[in-house]
Structures are given as C-alpha cells and as structure tokens.
Specification:
Length: about 220
C-alpha cells in the first residue's frame, strides 16, 4: 500500500518536472521567464539548478532561516557537508529536523539495491555493498552529530529511491534521480511555499516518513 501511494505521489511529481525538461538546454532568460510564469500559475517554482550540487550555497542560507527541516535522501552525503554543518553545531536551531535515509539492512530486492543497479550502468564502481556502506557511514555520522541536538529524528525507509527532498517551512529543493546520472548531476528544482511543487515535495516526504522505521539516536 505504501509503495502504491508513493507511486502516485511520484507520478504527480514527475508530471510537474516535465515543465522544466524542455528548458534544460535553454538560456538563462528562458529560465527566468519560466520562474516568473510559474509564480503566477501556482506552481511555486523559483529556479532550476542544472545540477543538484550547484544548489548547496543557497541551501545553506535557507537552512539557516528554517523553523523546521525535512530531508529525504538516497544516500545522505549532503548531510555531512558544509551546508548542514550549522545545524549540527547548534549555530542554527530549527525546532525540528526530520531525516529519512534508505535502510541499508535490507538486502534482497531492496530499493537501495535497485538504485545501485541503475547507477552501476554508468559507474561500474557502484556495487550494492558500496552504496550500503556509504549509507551506513552517513547514518553513523548523523547519530554522532545529533547527540546534543534537540528535536532531531532519524528514520530509515525501503521505498522507491527516486528523488531527494530537502524542505523547510519556506522552500523545498526537489531532485528527481535519473537512471543515467548521479543525483548530484541531476537537475534540482527550487520551489517556494505555498505552491503545487512545494506540496508535492512535502507529500513525497510524508509518504516515506509514514512507512519508515525509527532509528534510535544517542
């Protein structure tokens, strides 16, 4: 049932991203025009980063102002980088931080292994065990980083590993993973609240959160 619901939400989100695919090779004025247009149609699309990794500077700014933070990630490397450092040091203090990462304990037929199979087509180094090790490393990092962090919850999921969501009470960064590229090289949508795309991002997170398993933290 959870996978069915997740599939519905994913299809809605996929239909939204179609709006941007035709402009991925366009010029900057076209990107600007699209952002202005979607603001008046209720989509809430603020900008599109050609690569997810290019969004991290602006992400750090939005995290610093956030009242709450929700993260659904396929591996979680971004959680260990500079953009999130102020959250773990206490420099930024959202009321709550909820993080979802794939469950590395599930092996046979897991969605994490399916994702690693897709990635291995263009990056042979990415075996299922390597991806599981990277997720475990990031889980260990978060358990240590959140020791003195109130309002932090970490959960694991085993659902279609199709997107990354980083959302705050104001904005969301939404990336749909491609079967032919790493997530860091995939386009990232920057969407504002309120708006259809912002709602889609929160739906993606909420469906996965409802079907996840808690992870005790020290």
């Amino acid at each position: 049932m959870a996978e069915f619901l997740f599939g519905i939400v994913s299809s809605l989100a996929a239909s939204a991203i179609v709006l941007t695919l035709g402009l991925l090779r366009g010029s900057r004025p076209l990107w600007w025009l699209m952002a202005v247009t979607t603001r008046y149609t209720g989509l809430g699309l603020g900008r599109v980063y050609r690569r997810q990794s290019a969004a991290e500077r602006h992400l750090a700014h939005d995290l610093h102002r956030a009242r709450w933070v929700k993260v659904l990630a396929g591996r979680g490397n971004v959680l260990t980088r500079e953009a999130f450092a102020p959250l773990w040091s206490g420099e930024s203090a959202p009321e709550s931080i909820q993080v979802l990462l794939p469950d590395p304990r599930t092996v046979d037929g897991s969605w994490l292994d399916r994702r690693s199979h897709d990635v291995s087509r263009f990056d042979p180094v990415y075996t299922p065990e390597l991806l599981r090790r990277q997720v475990r490393t990031n889980l260990d990092y978060l358990e240590q980083a959140s020791r003195n962090r109130r309002g932090f919850e970490l959960r694991k999921f085993n659902l279609p590993n199709t997107c990354r969501v980083i959302a705050t009470d104001r904005v969301a960064y939404l990336t749909f993973y491609s079967s032919s590229a790493h997530g860091r090289n995939s386009p990232c949508l920057y969407v504002r609240a309120p708006g259809l795309l912002y709602s889609v991002a929160l739906q993606q997170f909420d469906v996965a959160w409802t079907s996840s398993s808690p992870t005790p933290t020290t």
